[in-house]
Amino acid sequence: MVYVYAVSLTAINLVLxxxxxxxxxxxWLMILFAAVLEWWLPGESMFSWTVLSVGAALAxxxxxxxxxxxxxxxRQAGASKRAAALAIAGGxxxxxxxxxxxxxxxxxxxxxxxxxxxxxxxxxxWAGRPLFRSVAAGQGAxxxxxxxxxxxxxxxxxxVILLGIAAFI
Length: 169
Hints:
About 80% of the residues lie in helices and about 0% in strands.
């Protein structure tokens, strides 16, 4: 019966891993589901506290990487603090609006990058910066958002593998 739970958890974790593209807390939900499964199966130890702690640390690392890379992309391109903040908000809004695009899965990432671009552009124009400098900052925000999401997806993949191996051992 333990293997049924392990297979089910791994399948759920794969779905949650894809949810990271939609700005959902997929990595955190993977850890939560593993912890609930560990609690729910008394006497059957699937995960050690070490595995759950490492998974939580990885989820935190993914959040930090996404935030830092997204904001750094805008700041390195010369964006103002307001533009960097609006790039983050624009990325979330863009991901939501980009989800129904006819490009499966990639529509969300495209929307997030375009939203980060638009947010940074608006923030810099609002701060009184010239248009061409604002466009460059928007491009930096879009690139940063892409790499931030890619890094978070990579960390999420490591969590899926970690929990999958731990569930079957």
